[in-house]
Amino acid sequence: MASSVRVAGVGCGFFAGNHYNSWNDLKGEGAELVAVCDIDAKKAEVTAKKFGVPKWYTDFDEMLAKEKIDLLDVITRMDTHRMLVEKSIGKKIATIVQKPFAPDWNDCVAMTAAADKASVFLAVHENFRFQAPLIRVKRVIESGEIGAPTWARVSFRTGYDIYSGQPYFYDEIRFIILDLGIHTLDIARFLLGEVDLVSCQTQRRNPKVKAEDTVTAILRHTSGAVSVNDFSYESRRLPDTFPNTLLEIEGPKGAIVVDNDFKMRVAVDGKLRLEDLGTPLLSWTSHPWHVAQESVLNTCRNMLSAFRTGRDADTSARDNLKTYAVAEACYESAEKGTMVHPRHFP
What is the pTM for the complete model shown? Predict the structure, then answer.
């Protein structure tokens, strides 16, 4: 095997363990986790010890100066992304940044432009499209079994307490579209193609939050297909479907439905085919989180392979800007009460 890829991570918080487990699982594919960093010394030290990482830091600049890093994984809150990414790009370090890419469009564009100018690998860790059920749905669509999709619904509705682990959500000025909707909007792009028109309605149903917690968005895709994207943190349904994405996709020859039971139902010519989309637990995953945790491994694998072979990741900065543009269009549509065309990056 070629020389290993030296991976470092910045951020040792709520979700970071899934990243570090993934990088350790990818040792056989060339990943070597060499350092972690967090402004909280205890978190950094505990993370290093738990995942067998030789070095830990509280100062990001010090880590960049002392470590030889091939690939940096930024697993911090979005308001820190631009500063961290621009520093790593300045050191010519290939970088992965957690979603959402940044708090606003201008920061996303600035990071992407900086990476382009420096010819440095930059990707966004958009992991929902790497969930095993969604990968399988994509393959069925590409097989032509139901024909080119003409309509879809992408739904993620839950009442799961997401605030206990991330209490800062109460104070976000732009909330569920960037936290959760960015995933479902990316799924719509992934399955149906690019988006040329957006209509969106937002709601704030929880009086404790400052911003939107429920959204219904209709997307017209360049193919002519239409998708309904609905997502909420205030669902009262039982059983709660967290953390699964529910799908309905229709084409001229048939339809695909994915419910909360990890079964895909493909109807073609009046005949129904049932396929189990569940996958075995990994040593470090557990229900109900497994589908999301496994997707982190799949995402890291895609990015490691892309970096090693000199190609863009599937969710490169430029690709993710297209999803981010749809999210921005949702905010603009909801504010103005009109349909909006997503922005384009030059």
Answer: 0.96
Residue 225 phi/psi, 5-degree rounding, is -70, 155
Q: What is the pLDDT of residues 235-274, one digit of tens each?
A: 999 999 999 999 999 999 999 999 999 999 999 999 999 9
User: Phi and psi for 113 in degrees, rounded to 5?
Assistant: -65, -40
Q: How far is residue 163's CA from residue 244's CA, in Å, rounded to a whole number?
A: 18
Radius of gyration for the chain, computed over Cα atoms and rounded to the nearest angstrom: 20
Decide if 311 contacts 148 (C-beta within 8 A).
Answer: no
Please, which pLDDT band fits residue 165 given cuts at 50, 70 and 90? confident
**DSSP-assigned beta bridge partners for residue 7:** 33, 71
Contact 95, 224 (CB under 8 A): no
Q: State the amino acid at position 54 in one-letter form.
A: P
Main-chain dihedrals φ then ψ at residue 270, nearest 5 degrees: 75, 5
pLDDT band, very low/low/confident/very high, at 2 (cuts 50, 70, 90): low
What is the identity of the amino acid at 154? V
**Phi, psi dihedral angles at 150 (to 5 degrees):** -115, -20
- Please check whether residue 263 is in contact with residue 272, taking contact to mean a CB–CB distance below 8 angstroms: no
Half-sphere exposure of 123 (CA within 13 A, CB side): 25
With contact defined as beta carbons under 8 Å apart, do 182 and 323 qualify?
yes
Instruction: Identify the H or E element spanning 184.
Output: helix 182-192
Reduce the DSSP state of residue 13 to 3 states and report it: coil
